[in-house]
Amino acid sequence: MSGRNFSLTNHLSDFVDREVVSGRHQNASEVVREALRRYEDELAAEKASLAVIERIAAEGISAIENGDFTVVDGKDASQALLERLNARAIARKIHASGPKYG
Questions:
Q1: Which residue among 20, 31, 49, 81 is least crowded, i.e. fewest CB within 10 A of its CB?
Q2: Residue 4: which pLDDT band, with cuts at 50, 70 and 90?
Q3: How much is the pLDDT for 94?
Q4: 27 backbone dihedrals φ, ψ, rounded to 5°
Q5: Segment 40-57, tens digit of pLDDT
Q6: Could you give the 3-state DSSP secondary structure of residue 69?
Q7: What is the pTM of this model?
């Protein structure tokens, strides 16, 4: 394990001290390691979310380019589309859950 030397703001230094005093961590290094592990996990989750958004956007662009879209004009049309989508979602949920046998 390599040593590192870094500076913290007073606010972060106080936070590290409070975490050690609370007994959650034995020392400042543990606090920093946990913080970095959490940050790394957060970055990985962000990257995965962006990949999903990019895939969905690409699918949407492709659908538009292929003319596979619905123009919704006005409140009534919006409501009708919402009702159709809700009905499809309910049908998929019922289909996915299958028959219930006691």
A1: 49
A2: confident
A3: 86
A4: -160, 175
A5: 999 999 999 999 999 999
A6: coil
A7: 0.64
What is the C-alpha separation between 36 and 26, in angstroms, rounded?
16
Residue range 17-42, pLDDT digits in tens: 999 999 999 999 999 999 999 999 99
What number of residues does the chain have? 102
Taking the CA atoms of residue 75, residue 76, residue 82 and residue 83 in that order, the dihedral angle to the nearest 10 degrees is 150
pLDDT of amino acid 74: 94
Residue 28 in contact with residue 16, Cβ under 8 Å? yes
Angle at 42 between CA 52 and CA 1, to 5 degrees: 130
Distance (Å, whole) CA 4 – CA 16: 16
Packed helices 10-22 and 28-65: angle between N→C axes, nearest 10 degrees: 110
CA distances from 57 to 25, 44, 50, 65, 97 (A): 43, 20, 10, 12, 29
Q: What are phi and psi of 5, to 5 degrees?
A: -125, 120
